[in-house]
Structure formats: structure tokens, C-alpha cells
Structure to design on (549 residues):
């Protein structure tokens, strides 16, 4: 029982990170109808910024806002430099552009920094453990869950209570109608990318605190998991993305704990196959498709 | 409804030989229309005549392929919907286009994006008081509103930008007869309050009773125009350009 509770906490923590990424992917999908396969690059860029700044001795508490600002700026910059040119284009054009950006950023780090990964120091408290109701948990897991939940609640509040959030939701439902109501295309798309950047920035901080590693492909797996979580919840749906992320995290942790050690390397593959089977029975994801529930 | 002399008010909107085409198919051929401040202008015609295409061109959703659109004398051809809204032109679109995932109040608030936060909230509250049904259902998802409530929301939403000119695309379309009557009453109220209206409708008889000036469009051509009362009296126009007499009666849906 204690072991199961520990696995649940682990899964919830991991799933919260996926939820942050899935929500960002869902937001940009909502306003552009583009699955952003370059979303993981926000983590890659953040990782190298963290690596560079820890080299010069910057404290993690200062590093956190810097990473988040970096992620927001990178997200908005990628929209301005690359994605704006495929607005309203075919799905293929958008897909190719997002893959193109992914490969260009990755190759840039390989060419100008290093093909191998670079480790950097993580905060001291990262490996400490504590007991919660008899269950032994790592402090980092509690931090991840608290930070992710707070971030998700703040994002929800932004989407429901601010005019920018309302504009993003309006554009996600019907872009032309939103324009008719006075919503500026540039503003709403950049707001969505900025918010997605903020969410990815928080995910990057949590992810980098765990791994302490910068590599050209650092964002690849988190991006794939984010896309997967967004798909599980039904692309572009707020609650779906969050649920999809948490579900994915719990499934992964369960697989890791239940599979024989020699099959650890197959966890990602098995997860993808299980999700594929899910879509056979629930093509629209885990939630029913109802327009009014979309982002 | 004739609140001023048609043709002589200060001109707000002028269309000069406007052409609209979709993929090489011309929907509107050289339409020229003038809307004066405080005027109630009707554009009537059968299904597929080019009415909605013309409205979409005016508000920038589908820029015209030729001709000029002037707003208060300035050329605004090709402007975006957002820019035209800020200039003072709002549209109540065909089929209402309610944002169903937002609540009634959120629909109004997002439509007030062109104004400051305080005035946006004040105006939304005023409109929810004026349209009582919207006030009662302010927190309901707009997708759950009835047809009549949704139409009220579409009109209230357009008023959120305090437009100088309100364009309406078949506001009574798809509504039950009693609700259609309510919509026309609402048009009368808006016109009475001095709102400049440019309304597209298939229910020609009712609209001509209310409008100052009317234009008849058929197959993309403006085939007649003039004071609404004069056009209403010309049975020959009804029969020639809008089919038999039944076209002038209420048509609940297209």
C-alpha cells in the first residue's frame, strides 16, 4: 500500500510536468491548429542557459526566473521568426515548419556548443526525502507537484479571468469570429505562445532540477510526452491536456515499477503502444468531444 | 422609421463599384451603396444573391476583389476586421456565430476587447440589464442558449464596441415567428435610439416597413434602390427580382 502511494506520488509529479507541456502544446494548437513539435526546444534552450549560468556561479533561485523568461522569449521569438509564415497554411506546411525548427535548433547546439551532454550542478535539497503520512517521498516530488498545480491554476485563472485569456479561448474556438469581435490575430497568437512558453519554462525548471543535464536533444522526449498527453486529452482542450499528462505520468511510473528491470528501456515504446490502443477505442481522447469544453 | 431625409445625412459608409469573388466566381458585381449617419438601410434579395458576401467584404473578412470602400470619406478597402471594428463598424454575423465554449458574459467581455477593462465590464453589465435573458444566463455556457437568446447575445456583443454602424446579416434567420418579431422590435429600438443600421434580410416586407433606404440585390447586381417606402410600393420589383409574391413573406430559414 505504501509502495503504491509512493508510485502514485511519483506518477502525479511526472504527470504534472507532462501536463504543463501538454497545456502549452494545446494552447498553440488552439490558436493556430498546429501541433508544435518544436515545443521541446524551449526546454533545450533553457537547459543550455541553465548550464551556462551555473558555470558562472549563478544561484538556482536566480536561475529559476531567468529560465522562465528565456522560455517565454524563445517561444515568442520562434513564433515571430518561423511560425507566423505558416499561419493559415495547410496542416502539412505547419507540421514541416515545426519539425524544421526542431531540427535547426538541435543542429545549432550540436554545431556551436557540443554534440555531447553537459552536466551542471543542481540545488542541494534535490535528493532530500521526507515522510508524509508514513510514505517516504523525495522533496523534489512535492516541489514538482506543488509548483505544477499552482502553475496550472494560475494558467486557468489567466484563461478565464483576463481579456488575453478570453481572446485565446475565443480564437481557439473560431478565429474569424474572434477577429470580428476585435481580437487582433498577432496579439492572440503571441499571447498563446507566451503562455505556452511560461508553462514550458516552469516544466523546464522542474525537469532540469531532476536531470541537471543540457544536451541538444534534451527537449525531445519531454516534447513527445507533451504531445502524447495533449492527444490523450483531446488536442486543444484545457482539462484534457492536464488529465492526459497526469494519466501518462501515472502509467509510466506503473510500467517502470511493474516491468522486469531488463525491460526498462522499453517503457517509452510500451507506453506509446498502449496509448495507440487507447485511440482505437477513444479516437477523440479520454474526454468526449464537445465543442463547449474546448480551451 | 424615417428619422431623416434619405440620401442627405452625413455619409458614413460608401461602397464604390465593389466586386467580390470566391475562387474566380464573382458573387457581387460593382455594388455601389451609401449609408448615412443615423440611417436605417436595408439590403434585400433572394438566397445566394450576394448579400452576405457584400457584408463580409465590408467588414474585411473577405476583402473585395475590386472597387473602393470608404468610411467617413477615407479609403478602408482591405482593412482587417479588427481595424474596421476599431474604426466603428461592427457586424452581427449570419448564424450568430456565438462562441459556445465561453459563457454569455465572457462572450460580451471578449467583444469589448477594444475598450478598457472598466468600461468593458460596465458596458457588459448595462447590456445584460437591457437584455434581461442574457442577464439571467450570464454564467451559462453560451452553447446552451436558445435561438432567441443567442440572437440577443449576438446583437449585444456587437454593441460592446459602441459601433457607429451596425451591420446585421439576417438577424431573424432560423428563429420562430414570435422570436422573429422580437428581433424586428429590437431593430426598431436600435434605429429609434439613433443607431445607424445596415441590415440584410430575406423578410423584405417587414424590413422595408422599418428602413429609410433600401437596395435590392440579385445575382450579385444591385438592381434597384431608393427610399424604402417607394420600393415597398412597387409590386413589379418584387415579382421581377425576388420571384413570386411569396418571397416577400416571412421565410423562417434559408
Amino acid at each position: 500500500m505504501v509502495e503504491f502511494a509512493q508510485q502514485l506520488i511519483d506518477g502525479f509529479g511526472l504527470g504534472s510536468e507532462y501536463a504543463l507541456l501538454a497545456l502549452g502544446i494545446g494552447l498553440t494548437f488552439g490558436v493556430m491548429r498546429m501541433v508544435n513539435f518544436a515545443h521541446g526546444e524551449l526546454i533545450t534552450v533553457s537547459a543550455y542557459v541553465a548550464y551556462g549560468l551555473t558555470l558562472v556561479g549563478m544561484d538556482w533561485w536566480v536561475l529559476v526566473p531567468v529560465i522562465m523568461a528565456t522560455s517565454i522569449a524563445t517561444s515568442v521569438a520562434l513564433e515571430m521568426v518561423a511560425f507566423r509564415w505558416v499561419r493559415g497554411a495547410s496542416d502539412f506546411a505547419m507540421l514541416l515548419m515545426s519539425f524544421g525548427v526542431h531540427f535547426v535548433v538541435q543542429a545549432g547546439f550540436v554545431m556551436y556548443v557540443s554534440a555531447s551532454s553537459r552536466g551542471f550542478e543542481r540545488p542541494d535539497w534535490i535528493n532530500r526525502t521526507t515522510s508524509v503520512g508514513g510514505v517516504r517521498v523525495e522533496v523534489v516530488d512535492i516541489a514538482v507537484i506543488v509548483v505544477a498545480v499552482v502553475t496550472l491554476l494560475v494558467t486557468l485563472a489567466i484563461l478565464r479571468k483576463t481579456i488575453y485569456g478570453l481572446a485565446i479561448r475565443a480564437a481557439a474556438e473560431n478565429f474569424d469570429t474572434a477577429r470580428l469581435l476585435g481580437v487582433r490575430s498577432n496579439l492572440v497568437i503571441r499571447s498563446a505562445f507566451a503562455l505556452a512558453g511560461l508553462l514550458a519554462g516552469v516544466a523546464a525548471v522542474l525537469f532540469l532540477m531532476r536531470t541537471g543535464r543540457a544536451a541538444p536533444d534534451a527537449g525531445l522526449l519531454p516534447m513527445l510526452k507533451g504531445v502524447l498527453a495533449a492527444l490523450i486529452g483531446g488536442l486543444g482542450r484545457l482539462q484534457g491536456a492536464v488529465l492526459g499528462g497526469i494519466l501518462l505520468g501515472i502509467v509510466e511510473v506503473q510500467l517502470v515499477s511493474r516491468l522486469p528491470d531488463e525491460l526498462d528501456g522499453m517503457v517509452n515504446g510500451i507506453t506509446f503502444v498502449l496509448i495507440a490502443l487507447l485511440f482505437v477505442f477513444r479516437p477523440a481522447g479520454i474526454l468526449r468531444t464537445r465543442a463547449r469544453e474546448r480551451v | 422609421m424615417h428619422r431623416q431625409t434619405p440620401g442627405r445625412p452625413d455619409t458614413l459608409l460608401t461602397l464604390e463599384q465593389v466586386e467580390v469573388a470566391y475562387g474566380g466566381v464573382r458573387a457581387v458585381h460593382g455594388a455601389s451603396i451609401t449609408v448615412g449617419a443615423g440611417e436605417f438601410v436595408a439590403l434585400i434579395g433572394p438566397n445566394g444573391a450576394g448579400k452576405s458576401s457584400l457584408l463580409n467584404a465590408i467588414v474585411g473578412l473577405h476583402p473585395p476583389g475590386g472597387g473602393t470602400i470608404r468610411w467617413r470619406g477615407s479609403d478602408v478597402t482591405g482593412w482587417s476586421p479588427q481595424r474596421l471594428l476599431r474604426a466603428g463598424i461592427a457586424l452581427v454575423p449570419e448564424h450568430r456565430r456565438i462562441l459556445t465554449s465561453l459563457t454569455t458574459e465572457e462572450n460580451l467581455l471578449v467583444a469589448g476587447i477594444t475598450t478598457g477593462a472598466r468600461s468593458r465590464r460596465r458596458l457588459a453589465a448595462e447590456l445584460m440589464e437591457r437584455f434581461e435573458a442574457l442577464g439571467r444566463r450570464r454564467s451559462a455556457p453560451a452553447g446552451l442558449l436558445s435561438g432567441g437568446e443567442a440572437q440577443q447575445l449576438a446583437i449585444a456583443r456587437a454593441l460592446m464596441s459602441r459601433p457607429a454602424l451596425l451591420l446585421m446579416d439576417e438577424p431573424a434567420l432560423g428563429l420562430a415567428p414570435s422570436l422573429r418579431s422580437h428581433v424586428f422590435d429590437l431593430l426598431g429600438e436600435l434605429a429609434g435610439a439613433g443607431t445607424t443600421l445596415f441590415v440584410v434580410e430575406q423578410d423584405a416586407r417587414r424590413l422595408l416597413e422599418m428602413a429609410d433606404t433600401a437596395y435590392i440585390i440579385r445575382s450579385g447586381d444591385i438592381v434597384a434602390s431608393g427610399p424604402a417606402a417607394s420600393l415597398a410600393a412597387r409590386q413589379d420589383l418584387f415579382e421581377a427580382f425576388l420571384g413570386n409574391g411569396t418571397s416577400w413573406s416571412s421565410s423562417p430559414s434559408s
The longest helix of chain A spans residues 2-32. Chain A has a mean pLDDT of 88.
